[in-house]
Amino acid sequence: MAVLNRAAELQEEVTGWRRHLHAHPELLYDVNETAAFVAEHLGQFGCDEVVTGIGRTGVVGVIKGSRGAGETIGLRADMDALPITEATDVPYKSTVSGKMHACGHDGHTAMLLGAAKYLAETRNFAGTVAVIFQPAEEGGGGGDAMVKDGMMERFGIDRVYGMHNMPGMPVGSFATHAGPAFAATDEFRITIEGKGGHAAMPHNCVDPIVAGAQLVSAFQTIASRNTDPGAPVVVSVTQFHAGNAHNVIPASAEISGTVRTLAPEARSMAEQRMRAIADHVCQAMGATARLTWRPGYPVMVNHPDETDVSIEAARAISGEAAVGTKLPPIMGGEDFAYMLNARPGAMILIGNGDSAGLHHPAYDFNDEIIALGISYWARLAEMNPAR
Ligand code: NI
């Protein structure tokens, strides 16, 4: 592997930052201490500009290169943790009960800070680098908030790149692919109204549990019968609440869950089918359904040219064999999608080795990959062409 010497030298210092962030997790937009930590370090590195409060608690640092004029590229990390109680015994374990960095955003933030330090020292690139630290990736749409706050225009960002760690991928490996890479993540909630009564006299009732059970089954046909088998759609019912006594048929039931799609047509098809199935199945059972559809993150689509650039940068660090270029789409969501809808760019995954999975209470970001991540960011910046 060809990590940059300076990145290897920074490994220990950046590991310290990573572990500090790990011990002090913050959720969603409430990343005030993390953002202050980031802004303070960016200032110490001698960034040309450090702006806080973008998209509420996002931070952007601007670093101008010394190799002539060129585009401004945005390098993005996420700062927020998850509402999970940590189940590790590491010395830098979360000090906040019920919150932990279980998705590695502590590592993402630390690696991008390390890259910012390197880039501010060396300036061996054309154009400008904007390092972007966003809040609220875990369901709060912080990336959207920064875009809506005018970040792209304000800093003249032409292209934007992201990186996320992936457990199970070997240390030293990277993977990406052009096109849809993360799914749209919509939520649904259905209230079924029936008619409650004595469990021994079902003929005098309209049982919302029986209607709901039919709905759960019928929803499976959205993926299995309404979708092109080559285009993945996930429909998962994750909650079904009804009743509170063994001898009472309840008056209502609630079902909720998530729908994941990779294309706008599939997304609207799934919503339409879900509404039709809920209405008509419940009607057939004598009940009524009220469906609320809450759109989540859009599909995250990697742009082809920028995906090629990210592959080239990763290959320069890890060699051709360690960079996967045909990563199958992941049906999880990623709010970097909003930045990729605003500007061309690409996200790459970096192997976290043999760790617990993302969002698992025993997960920990792997500090061994810090120099690799810094080197990837540095390489991307140094590949920025002069104009
Ligand atoms: Ni994440």
Structure report:
It is a single chain. The protein is an alpha/beta fold. It has two domains: 5-182 and 299-382, Zn peptidases (Aminopeptidase), CATH 3.40.630.10; 184-294, Alpha-Beta Plaits (2-Layer Sandwich), CATH 3.30.70. The chain is built from ten helices and 16 strands. It has helices at residues 5-23, 32-45, 105-122, 142-148, 151-154, 208-225, 264-284, 304-318, 336-342, 370-382, and strands at residues 49-54, 58-64, 72-78, 128-134, 159-166, 174-175, 179-182, 184-193, 197-198, 233-242, 248-249, 252-261, 288-294, 300-302, 323-324, 345-351. The strands form four sheets. The chain has an eight-stranded mixed β-sheet with strand order 1-2-4-3-5-16-6-15, sandwiched between helices. Helix 1 packs across helix 10 (370-382) and helix 3 crosses helix 10. It is elongated, with a radius of gyration of 24 Å. Bound molecules: nickel (II) ion. The site of nickel (II) ion has 4 residues, from loops.
